[in-house]
């Protein structure tokens, strides 16, 4: 049997190694060749190559037409992006018109954010706040941080008054101010109800029984407002209550200069003189204590510890009670719980997952739970040596401080007892006024009946003096007449004597 590359003598097939045959063994005609073992170039161009050349020419023609259209008709960027499948754009950065690029390393928050043009998100939760809006907007006008770097965010929830309408009116006036430094940046108004049933009066809001449910709903409101308005370009988030009565105009810069992740001032409130003149208000900024930790272990899982109530004696060091009116306002105090009246926090704290717990977190909720979310024990252990492995805040390592000597003032809201006492004081005041009025009327009647005693005395004194003068004059006149009569008598007696002598 012949090998596969061989052929019989009678076969037309030739050896593929023969110079007169193709590589497949068939004879070939006498053609010019360069090498006996190479194929000759084909006389015609393949169809695929012709098709490729055609497509290249068409693409070149389209590109030339597109460039010509851009130079002649503006606004054809979208046309180009359609035909370029989004790979080209009319923008110089080469991105789609709908693409926004943010470098979050530039929004970490620094100590001098006003110089670096760092934006602040100012969040204000509102509920039945119509009476306080005028006061709040007066504070907004006076803030010294550049207004165009502050974005305002309001949440109106469960309100029965005209909070929303008045808010819109105030915002329109603020943004239309003639002073170019007054208008703020982006403004967001969020309206959502959370089913808050607690009334807004002092006794209802601050009653012990309502604290747990009320604070959990307040935490939900804060989280909704923050998640709906926080933007990638915000470096700071500032929470502010609407009923702050007095605060420094430079509060944003003052707090920011400390460059802390979470920082709060001290919050007091003015009182009437009969109540002492002033009082600590926000007791939610504190340091943890052994007693509070032991108390937390005895409570139910859903319990919420609140400060300032006899039911929960925690014996914690409160930021409010450490205030010295003459102390250094920049002195810092590490705290574990924060009050919600005025909070400045870096936006990265919230982006990393910290929030206001709307549930019992370590037996705390809302802002106090937020403080625990943000703090870390420098020892890494609790007082009894147990690892603090259940507090997510402790692992995040954020700095949470309070300023005991930097004070802002909350609006005074009288309690029921204060109101009763003030009513009693008002009754006493009215009774005293009536008594003084009656006394004045009696004195007036006496004066009308008897006249003025001083003037009467002067009158009587004058009359007595006149009488005395007349008497003295009469006495003087009587003495003169008596002396005259005596002289006459003497003369008469002398004359009689002389006459007798003459007769004798």
UniProtKB/TrEMBL annotation:
Biased composition range(s): Basic and acidic residues: 433-450, 457-504
Domain of life: Eukaryota
Region described as Disordered: 1-20, 433-504
SUPFAM superfamilies linked to this entry: Nucleotide-diphospho-sugar transferases
Ranges that cross the membrane: 54-74
Keywords assigned by UniProt, alphabetized: Membrane, Transmembrane, Transmembrane helix
Feature: compositional bias, Polar residues: 1-10
Protein family membership: Belongs to the ANP1/MMN9/VAN1 family.
Name of the protein described by the UniProt record: Mannan polymerase II complex anp1 subunit
